[in-house]
Structures
1.
Amino acid sequence: MNGAHRFGSKCDRPKATDIHFKMQAPVEHRWSPYADNGGTCLGVAGENFVVVAADTRLSQGYSIHTRNCSKVTRLTDKCVIASCGMKSDAITLHKHLKARLVMYEHQHRRQASVTAIAQMLSTTLYYKRFFPYYTFNVLCGVDDEGKGAVYHYDAIGSFERVPYTTSGSGSALVMSVLDAQIDKENQTIDTPALDKAGIVELCKDVLSSVGERDIYTGDSGEIFLIDAAGISKTEFDLKLD
Amino acid sequence: MAAVEEPQDYLDVLQSHRGGFSFENCKRNAYLASQVAIKPPTAMKSGTTICGIQLKDVVILAADTRSTCGPMVADKNCEKLHFIAKNVYCAGAGTAADLQHTTEMMESQMELLRMATGTQPRVCTVVRRLSSMLFKYQGYVGCALVLGGVDVTGPHLFQIYPHGSTDKLPFTSMGSGSLAAMAILEAEYNENLSVEEGKKLVAKAIRAGIFNDLGSGSNVDVCVITKDVGGTILRNFEKPNERKFRAKHAAFPIGTTPIMKQEITKLVSVEEDVVMRD
Amino acid sequence: MMDFMAQRPVGQEFVRHVEDGCPYRADDVMKPEQAVSTGTTLVVAEFDGGVVMCADTRTSTGQYCANRASRKISKVHDRIFVCRSGSAADTQALTSFVLHYLGQHAVELGKQPTVNTAANLFKIMAYNNKDHLLAGLIVAGYDDKKGGQIYSIPLGGTRVRVPYAADGSGSGYIKGFMDANYRPGMSKAECLEFVQKATALAISRDGSSGGMVRSLVITKDKVEEAVIEGNKLPVDL
């Protein structure tokens, strides 16, 4: 602001012919049926056991709804499912799966195998191909041969049996650590594979680390260990910020 | 390397002396965005909790130390309290780059003013200069500030919005955690608090933001500005978020990463028998 | 002011691209921050020997109340004040420019400037930059030429002299009340009560107005400020 000021000088306003006016995209306001409630889960298969870990924060946007909400549901005595994404869809999906498994048990007089549940989950998800459940699932259990099984899904039912996997808001951070520590990718020296306690320790460490960098992961973690003895659960604290 | 353009006439010279931002690529970028779906770069915005209180003869500012980039924590222990003059500090929320440059610019302006006039800068001077600048850029410079200081006229606390509006208040909070922090301040603020009580209050307000707002986190920084001492930053005044668990990993043995090729290049060659001539 | 506007970034017209389906906060360098605006109730009325100005004290950013005890009546000169509504940044900037120019003018003049001059300065600023401003103003004050005067300067930059005026988001609720109850030639006390009552009524109906009722009585001899706290408003709810 130096020199003489004159009233009435017009500033150069954009004209209707200017390029940015032509390309002004229409603004659409609409309600979305989906929400992202954040959170991270992971599953690691061992020779005769499987470890599932997940945090318990339920959030939306910049606010925390609750600090203690489990993402993991027990489906049978040797199978659990962990779901990230939208909580209401996860609840619906888990309820639906449990109902189907009760019917299975009545019809077949035994509990469904992990492989059978895996297939059923896939069809259940694909059934809603054009209005999907907004859930990203990890299905874990011990199969009929007694081997640890981990299945990874997308939201519409594409699935794959994998040695380890992760999903949710911090999954990108988790995967790189699992690749290095479990798969030992790009490592030339053989180091002994982690044992059961080592994998549990690793899962705890990974979730603690993700809690440092992913704002949607935190509060507390839970670890499910499934082996021949059944399902056991341990809990541990994460950061609250 | 691009050639440096020589000023062609007095208009160019005038332009180069005027300073400010360069907007030369705005139209080009808009055109590119319309032709191909190019996303403009996203800035680091700190979802933040900052607050400040004014007491009898002291101003106390406080901030959290998390800096985010979308859902990721970009910096777990960043500094959001900025030095402007010995007796004026500010806490910033909004676009990280804008905050850093705006406060640095104000720091240099105030130092030049101090040297030119031989007097201590006043808080209202800083406020006026900041609001004029922010108004000029119509909200595109994303600085939301809580500015505090003590000058010859006493303690002052201001909040400044990105569009350049200002408010003078006894207590304020800004950033994504401002609602959580304001809840504490509204409940417990009182102008007769002692300095120690004041420090505790702002730290409690920031803690509310840290724990209840996902954009804020990590530690509490506090800045106390008094008439005699000026401002003192109490870095990491509280650390309520230490890591709770760390596994003991076996280190990767040397040689874990394969060496594909090894080559040693001599970057400096030493000539032994150089004869110097005149 | 004019220079400021001429230097405005061209980037303002930039089309914004937010990632599709991104659940996180749209975080874009080219996007200006949300504006702070004064969803307001302003009431001003002339009486025998001066004017009374009245405003609520709520300043909001969207849903959030950024300041619950703000001052929307700003001083322009000894006996000239302005009630501000619209964008807080725009009206504050406008007021400080007029304050500056009117101050210079008063020094050159060697006596008190007229309310007419002040209102005219506001009008020129508001009209010339109407595409960029969101400012509704009521300029009022007292001078020896015409006594108490009120000039309303709504959004486009028109200037009209009125015996009483209401502006801001809350004004719609009370215009009928004002038309029915305003009488020319009221006493100071009557006028103050009338204006405070009108503001309180608007506060009780308008969500964007609230807090306290600040009032200012400008007469030849003095300027009196008063505040009614939010829990002592002169209305039965």
2.
Amino acid sequence: MWDRNQMAARAAEELEDGWYVNLGIGIPTLVANYVGDKDITLQSENGMLGMGPFPLEGDEDPDLINAGKQTITELPRTAYFDSAQSFGMIRGGKIAAAILGAMEVAENGDLANWMIPGKLVKGMGGAMDLVAGVGRVIVVMDHTNKHGDSKLLKECTLPLTGKNVVDRIITNLGVLDVVEGGLKIVETAEGVTEHELRAATEATIV
Amino acid sequence: MKKIYDSAETALEGLLEDGMLIAAGGFGLCGIPELLIDALVESGVKDITIASNNCGVDGFGLGKLLDTKQIKKMMSSYVGENAEFMRQYLSGELELEFNPQGTLAERMRAGGCGIPGFYTKTGVGTVIAEGKDHKDFNGETYIMEEGIFADLSIVKAWKADETGNLIFRKTARNFNPPAAMCGKVCVVEVEEIVPTGSLDPDHIHLPGIYVHRIIQGEHEKRIEQRTVRTA
């Protein structure tokens, strides 16, 4: 079974040299630590390409934050732009991939990650635009919820962020692709058998 | 025509009306028009609808206008940082129209460009698409979203010249240009007004045609999530 960092490292293998990529909050943020020698430019949807690491103490700039409102830094390649242009490049398919977390993924690629009815609704932010617009949507999440129930479902029960949008799912148990008719196992995590992965999955595995 | 005013209060004179639609720039607390928000609080204008990505935090930014109950409705993509917002929303005092972030930005830009509606894939198959016109292009389904035409825009820039040409700084640009474009009247607050001719014309982010009134002032620029790394 993979831990958070191993999941992030596995997700980083998905990225190809020269790609412009948007990373979501949580485990996806850790992916930046594992890109190695690949030339990857990170987009922050509040208006920046070429996002750098967090600043050293004392170097924080209130005019320089990421989409999670955290202070960050710029790089030699950095470019700034407004929100309309930022989502123009997202909607226009210029961002090669988005890596993001999820509450539920269905076997047809439906994604739910923004709202639990009856709980406080904070909003979708840029998630709906990202999953509708980027080239490849890669979900990184735990395979099951805290009750042990599968998060890979036949159908999502929560309100959707996007319909038919997920390409690949990386969980603590392995890697699955959304294909015609259901999910296809690409690989299993170290120490996880295919039988165990199937047993933990509600979605149809083809 | 003189665009420079000596205070946020005088810059808003004659522009405010109860029930109006205001587009505000900023992302979180970054690049928000702090001085104009304070002046709106002082003015007492009420029942306003605000198109803004967020609604500040408790007691700061647009959160101040929540405390005084001047906001009737918010058009936003994310409102998670604000307990008073949630209280007013759950008690039915405040209306909320969720917009995907890119849709909100494009609705502002479109309004400013005279485009009343456009089609986007964002939100197809979700609650956002309910009741909206659907149309297929090249085998894919899109929904129609409407341009925002605001009565007033309040934005924050870094520098302005005396004709209203604007330069923004880093990620504080965010929603400010599209918000500025979609208002009938746009009031801008900046950190520095510089003499006309001192900005490089090739470096202007938003031309002064979109800017009607300008004020200069001191900004608190509060940081929402101070995050640092160790050396």
3.
Amino acid sequence: MSATDIQDPNRRDFLYVATGMAAVVGAGAVAWPFIDQMRPDASTLALASVEVDVSSLTPGMSLVVKWRGKPVVVRNRTEQEMKDGEAVNLAQLKDPLARNANLPADAPATDANRTMPGKEAWIVMVQVCTHLGCIPLGQEGEFGGWFCPCHGSVYDTAGRVRGGPAPENMTVPVFQFISDTKIRIG
Amino acid sequence: MSEGHSTYTPKTGIGRWFDARMPLPRLVYDSFVAYPVPRNLNYAWTFGGILALMLAAQMLTGIVLAMHYAADSTLAFDSVEKIMRDVNSGWLLRYMHSNGASFFFVAVYIHIFRGLYYGSYKAPRELLWILGCIIYLLMMATGFMGYVLPWGQMSFWGATVITGFFSAIPLVGDWIQQLLLGGYAVDNPTLNRFFSLHYLLPFMIAGVVVLHIWALHVVGQSNPTGIEVKSKTDTVAFTPYATIKDAFGMLVFLFIFAYFVFYLPNFLGHPDNYVVADPLKTPAHIVPEWYFLPFYAILRAITFNIGPINSKLGGVLAMFGSIAMLFLVPWLDTSKVRSAVYRPWYKLFFWLFVIDAVLLGWLGSQPAEGSYVFMAQMATLFYFAFFLVVLPVLGLVETPRRLPNSITEAVLEKNKGGGGGHPARATAAPETKG
């Protein structure tokens, strides 16, 4: 090839594009481990499920266990609390979904859907406010459920958000009764 | 301004040798000795220097504290107590660092309000202003992460709430939050990365400060009249005039700072942070450090859904939006007149805005219930109205007072009425109100 008949695209164009491509792919490949190392590590991901003995809980009593670094409340509700929860008109709810990991994602937020079939007295949920992650206080607030002291979100006796800035009902984690007195969470 | 007409002449042989190879002494001379500043700068203009001093002090005390601190969730709280009790002079260094952060923010707020009052952000100083806003953002990130390090209750729950902001982002929010935390909740990985970043960010601030000063020295300082420098009589040399004034301002500021360090070291802190972090128990009343309170009040004011935006995302957007307003100020303000001295209506609204910001700060420290919520909503409304309605509209409808022809004329006019006095103090009245 003589110097006069350089055609487009020529060798220099090829080198530009090839170098540019290598630089972009290389930069991405180098950047990824720097981002990746920030994600939860193996020890954090190895989430053991927790078994809880609930035999000591009479109606009106709760206990809190730590699961995935967050508190999970187990509450044996009183008759009154269950009645209050069932009496709620679903149209009034801020978040109409049950947020129950044991049910389909579109299950409505009825009182029963916040619990287990046959175990309607028991509330098991991640006691973390869906606003910004504070721990709401139990049996407080105008609905007798939970009240978040940080930004004033109010939850009813089934853990459904009823007021304040929180957007969702508190999450019910995957759990099961492995016997009448034992619950496995996770 | 310093470009192009350097008057530096090295007097010694070594000076000439240096100047021909790397003219650093020339740069310092042109920037901090011969550099012309408006002759009418008042004490509100000393806060730039005070901020530089505070940044240096924070870095110095911080580097020393890092030699005694352990960034591990099982050790952090005790290592801070060890600094307080066992490390020689540790109590002093830690109190200087924690109160230093507060006083850094005191100075930056005065600096920002000074810019707003005298219209320092207007052309050609938009970039200078935006660089300042970036420094402010970096300061907030640094202050927040520093507050997490003692691993007290407020550290832990403050970190939980603030990283919770990111979970409001649709679709990728939870992923981003876990990326920040290194887990599902605030824990040891969070503490480790916050310590690393808390050490890094001040150096980034220092880098942006260099750009801020560079931009300042290209366009020159604004001044209380807001009129550009027109002749040599409008200016004085940086040294000794501004140097001594800045030094005196620093001294008075450090006196007040020292009073807090020695007599009120925990006045600006929170007693709950002397309780070790407990992931299962939220304190009855979470409050951030005082310098974040106005934004915290705005965050909590949005308790209602706005169309498709739920209240949580709405609160987070309002909070970030309230800071974003600052970046837009140069284009929101339509007035051709810079200084509030010549803008009677703007002056009124400026002070209303100051009162509103202080009110928001107070509301941020109160529980989010009852009438406080409504008051916070009204104060938030005024906050945004100031930027989005008052600033654009006022520039179009307000009749400004007659502007003097030059800085010199303004100074001489003032001295005639006020019975003499030092020229630099002539227009110094506004800062005495704040």
4.
Amino acid sequence: MSTSSAALDHSHDDHHHGPAKGFSRWLFTTNHKDIGSMYLWFSFAMFLLGGTFALVIRAELFQPGLQFVEPNFFNQMTTMHGLVMVFGAVMPAFVGLANWMIPLMIGAPDMALPRMNNWSFWILPFAFALMVSTLFMEGGGPNFGWTFYAPLSTTYAPSSVTYFIFAVHIMGASSIMGAINVIATILNMRAPGMTLMKMPLFVWTWLITAYLLIAVMPVLAGVVTMMLFDIHFGTSFFNAAGGGDPVLFQHLFWFFGHPEVYIMILPAFGVVSAIIPTFARKRLFGYDSMVYATASIAFLSFIVWAHHMFTVGMPLAGQLFFMYATMLIAVPTGVKVFNWVATMFRGAMTFETPMLFAIAFVVLFTIGGFTGVMLAMTPVDFQYHDTYFVVAHFHYVLVPGAVFSLMAAAYYWLPKWTGYMYDENLGKLHFWMSFVGVNLLFFPQHFLGLAGMPRRIPDYALQFANFNWISSVGAFLFGFSQLILLVVVIKCIRGGKKATDQVWEGAEGLEWTVPSPAPYHTFETPPDPSLIKDQ
Amino acid sequence: MASESSHSVYYVPEQTKFPFFASIGLFFMVFGLGSVLNDISASESATGSTWIALAGFTLLSFIIFQWFATVIRENHAGLNNEQLKRSYVWGMLWFIFSEVMFFAAFFGALFYVRNLSVPWLGGEGEKGVAGEFLWPEFQAAWPLINNPDSSIFTNPHEALNVHEWSLSFFAGYLPFWNTVILITSSVTLHYAHHALKHENRKRLIQWMFVTVGLGIIFLGLQALEYVEAYGHYGLTLDSGIYGSTFFLLTGFHGFHVTLGTFILIVMLLRCLKGHFKPDDHFGFEAAAWYWHFVDVVWVMLFFFVYLL
């Protein structure tokens, strides 16, 4: 079937308007591809910034004793590293992918609400300018950890916490608008014939992620508002002297925080579910079960939050409920992992860079998942809580998990975005350096945690020295390897081997029926329904 | 193809200056607001910060006004097809859902302190141990009048909740009348909508006037209640957890009623200008949904903050 020529006819109908000239193109654009690109660049910049903060941490922890930074500044680094990576790097990167790919995947002319789409993006640079500027304020920036537990973030917080609160408010508004846009696009803009169960899994995972965002970002806004009131208006929500409870903060925060974890990983599942079938040259195994598993994980994410706070004291019934509910998540997650493995089983596999990152994702994310089951066990968690074991756990799901899927996505769709193939050798170099670096960085942290090293400290006892220097070496290796990605992307934008429309031999889906690079406007008339295949 | 025609004219505006400048306005508004609060906490003059906040707010309001005006103009020019209108419907629905979750956080906090943490602080159950060590004298109760440490958080004299189930009590109970007023306003707004659908502009405008009036009366009474609470009941933001939850819930609800009333006033002005058609008035419908949502939140408030 000559899929590409059919799509070409459609996209050539309406070529009266290209991008606007000059810098105002980026400020005032309503184009989902422009906005997607801005999100991706912004998130990459934040990734480097948050990574720099992480390297300050790892430099300090290279050996015991205080070398480079004051403890208070160290705390600001752990806090800012977490906030910047979660809200500035991972989330916007997935929104960028959603912007670029969802309209292309469902055959829509653009996102449903293009002007609001631009607003969702442009709030972010301002929000992060406000947040990062707190580092230079009198009294320093937020130093209470990215989870900003009260009373550290209220009674004992530096005065810059007020700006932190407002920064969270406006980035929350940005996320909610982005999520509303995604939902309206997916529910309302699908091309004729694109039924829900024919949507690529990336679209499905984003639909469910958007629901999670709309449900929990307002709760985050609520909890920071209560902080603001405790700090400036004398309320006692998180102060037991007035009848409040600091633990209330943790309940509210984690009611947001746990679904937030899935906001960062569900789209990653979608990316991997797109890449593995392409390079295994087989259909995705168990599409329906993938959809149902995603929905189950999203549902369960709302009823497990207190597993983050087993040690604060909770009635026994509560501990048991949250323990079993948490373990239940392993079931749908297992469904996904087995489906990816089954997709690869007896496939005609090749190992281009996106596939390498995707396979590494499956293996390393699963390690993070296993440690998650360990942490879910209440009595065991009493031992692991607040140690480096927890740090190792969530970095395994977030770095070789979410971040690797983002790398995979970047390599996978880069030819579609730029029209050129990226440098495969540099890509592979980037992968292997990242792979070795990330495991050197985080695997020893399991042992440190099991041996009792607490997290968020600038100094530690001598017996932890060996694993810490290994971890720090891994951190610098991993960190500087990311510059290779920057080189690859810039090289790819500037030229290289021309990419075909389909780019990858085994790629299926509407995004591969439009030319490479994808024209400024695509699917202004819907694609031919015969192009939409069963999953 | 039949289905193509409805899809092919989805209106995608070329460029827009609104969002970028709205972001600038938003930034200066929150930066100014944060500075105002910090200045006050540090006992410094907040004049400069206030001007920054106001400038940001003015810019943001101006942009949003222009933005909505543009959307309305586009609709009048016939640029919005059925599909685009559905996007607005989905957008409004999920925006309201996000508001529901915002209030859910505050209601959740109320349930948690009432049913769990305050009893624990009073020594109840296996978690009561800490309470025994912290404030052994403390007695759990709701509404909480005697705070654990009343030297930090001054006790209120009296609570504002229903403490007597009699007709004479409710007849003089301001929140009860506010409930009646707000529910009535939802009904009158429904009549206005009905009149709009049946092309009866005179009735539409009359009912809109009534609805806006009821909204303003509600806000007036709510302000009166706050004055009473501060003046006579000693119930303030810093009078412990009962006052904290009371003012947070009713305050944010009041803020939403203020916003809702403002939206309804805009709708009324648009009705007077001859906007809206019986089969095309989503702006009006969205405003009505918002008002009904605010009404439902109040009913919940009345139950959980005042009645129970």
